[in-house]
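Field reference: sequence -> structure
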Amino acid sequence: INKTSTAGKGIFVLFDYKRNTDFFSYNQLLEFAHKIDPENIEIVKSIADESQMAGNKNKSLDYFLKYIELLEKNGILDDNLKLSFLKIAILYSDLKRNVQSVGYYEKYLEKESDPKKRGLIELELAGFYEDKLGNFEKSGKHYSNWLEYAAGIDIASLLYNESLELKNEKFSAYYGLSK
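Structure field:
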């Protein structure tokens, strides 16, 4: 520890200095707080986030699942729930548990209201069904949904590289539908 630094001095020692330099100690503090109050939503989310940053995917997944359980139990159905669905889907995917992952991608898609984000997830989900699960029926459904979204995009308003990317994605979608 650098004794000459002023970082970490004062009342923010645990929440600033330790968090940025010693994940293990901060994580231990969070777990201790969790033992004291296992129903505290913010502590559970903090443990999930810290575990994910530390690369402990299984632990992070467990705490994100617990976090969702607590949100639903308390009737909190906000953007945090939606983003947690996406994080869980990504963690399951990283752990090569694709069947479980796709369910959370679908839950995220149900909650997402932004058409641009929905379009991106539709395209990703279509490729996921096609490449990872071999479910061409569902990939076709998501490709069709994405093509409906893409039909509303004005190509003239896009930059050159964006228009090429859109054309490439349309080609991939039509190719995926042909399977």
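Note: Residues 18 and 82 are 29 Å apart (CA to CA).
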